[in-house]
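@channel anyone free to eyeball this complex?
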Amino acid sequence: MAQRNPDRSKAAGADPADGGSEDLVRYLQDQATEFLRALRQHRESGAPEASSSAMALRRAARRISGTLHTFRPLLDASWSDELRTELAWLSGTLAREHAYAERLERLLTALQRLAGSTAPIPAQAATAGTGQLTVGAAKAGALLDRQLTLARTRAHSTALQALGSSRFHAVADGVAVLASDVPLRKDAAAHRLAPFAADVEARLCDAVQTLPLVRAGHPYNAEALVHGLASDGAPETQDTPWHQVRLLLRLHRYAQEALGVRDFAPHLVTASRALDRHRDAAEAAAAASAAARTPRIAPATAYALGVLHADQRHEVEAARFAFKGAWQRVESGAAVSTP
Amino acid sequence: MAQRNPDRSKAAGADPADGGSEDLVRYLQDQATEFLRALRQHRESGAPEASSSAMALRRAARRISGTLHTFRPLLDASWSDELRTELAWLSGTLAREHAYAERLERLLTALQRLAGSTAPIPAQAATAGTGQLTVGAAKAGALLDRQLTLARTRAHSTALQALGSSRFHAVADGVAVLASDVPLRKDAAAHRLAPFAADVEARLCDAVQTLPLVRAGHPYNAEALVHGLASDGAPETQDTPWHQVRLLLRLHRYAQEALGVRDFAPHLVTASRALDRHRDAAEAAAAASAAARTPRIAPATAYALGVLHADQRHEVEAARFAFKGAWQRVESGAAVSTP
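replying in thread with the prediction:
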């Protein structure tokens, strides 16, 4: 990490600069241009699906939002705060449909693996006949399919509405301003970017310190399933600090990009992916347990959902283990030496 | 292992001998005496519970049976085969009650952990009111308590009947013969024990080679839960080779004891314990899934049993991981150098 290895950005990236406000302006303009390009493409292609243009739109929105946050002292504060809020609303709204689709696929793939089946799960619901538990898996798949497809359809409508709203047009106008003229504070030119980026990195390191990494480094610690049957809130509570680190890792990445570091250290990429998997598995586990609370389901269906929930919490634990391994390599400086 | 480290028994044990028939006679007589002593104590104390005398009885029975098997060519074959069959029947019958009690305790402890509870689970069934899932855990605990206590009571009656049967008295008579006069074959004195012990060890090594150890060495491989919802037989099929190694490891240990090796190599003890845990968790997982097939249970109960089943299969996987680690140390020769 930067405070331990001051040469990091030099070694990991192509640009050795610690960055000035002109780099910030260039980065924000690039992302704003990318946002507008994706938006144009998206409007031409039609529906706000999980298409490449929607992903590019969200990708740029996240970067603009994160950069406005990290380098806030260099920017017109009230203007950037407002744009940030609106971008968060937009990317949240656009992300939901894709998230439901991915969650369903993750759960159905897991069910298929657990049922030792080769055919897709929901299609089997009508025909399965080999043992009560297989029927349970098929019914659980059909139930999840119904619930998550409904949620996805709703998210789709919401996204469509959002893209036609005046609120959205205001966001697009804000980004268009950014593409031509970044509203810097008057004294911005006197500052370097590196201290702000280092601040994000320090916050990231602090957040990682609060994680139970020693425990996560022991495989099969069964931590992720502790309180798995307790109440609705319990697993989410233990996941929160990990989700927090995931967001800080992202913020760190965008700050490095603004500084001109083109290749994010590979172990940080691995760590970041592990936390993405952590988030996905945690939400899939929650969806399985929510489906089990559907009234009047068969016991075999509920049983299958219980197995599925535990399987996904197992994945949560595996992701923490993977994060711990990657972070260890980051800390031991391997991130610096690896090309 | 012996074929790789011929000095092993010298290094690990106190007695450097490769053993002759007189060692075999002494070992069998010792175990037979121990069996009769435990039996006397057991009769005096009363019920065939999981008491120390019942455990000592089974412990001696396992050792006699294993030794008769390994050194069969040195013994009167038909006599020892018959005694072996009868000892297997006896220790199986006596073990069952204890096994049900342990399984129930393992499952209730796991449920308590999963429910994030401090109070014992079955007692909560009537009072729990914080969320449907906690009720499910409490009801699952009560169901398992009912089913396994019933099984335990039946096993208790069977064990009582067995201890009063003429079949049992015939076994006791057979062991009494062994305590005074081991029926060796005439040419037994011409043989050393070491080749027979080495043969057991070779079978153990061969059996370990067939295990998917590479996969087991990768934590969170999710192997143990594959086909977890498929049908009743699937998990048992993948467990079988591990159970087989567990039995061979035991046989190896008894053969070493007969040779006069007093301290079994510590990593082999660790490996052996891991496979005990593997067996216990596999059977507990099967009990949870069997309980889920009880007619007319509530969905919340079935859900809790599904989570519990997956949790125990997770333990199965963890035990394989632990075995792999211990076995690696055995193979790298650490078993030899460790005192």
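from a first look: The first helix of chain B runs from residue 8 to 12.
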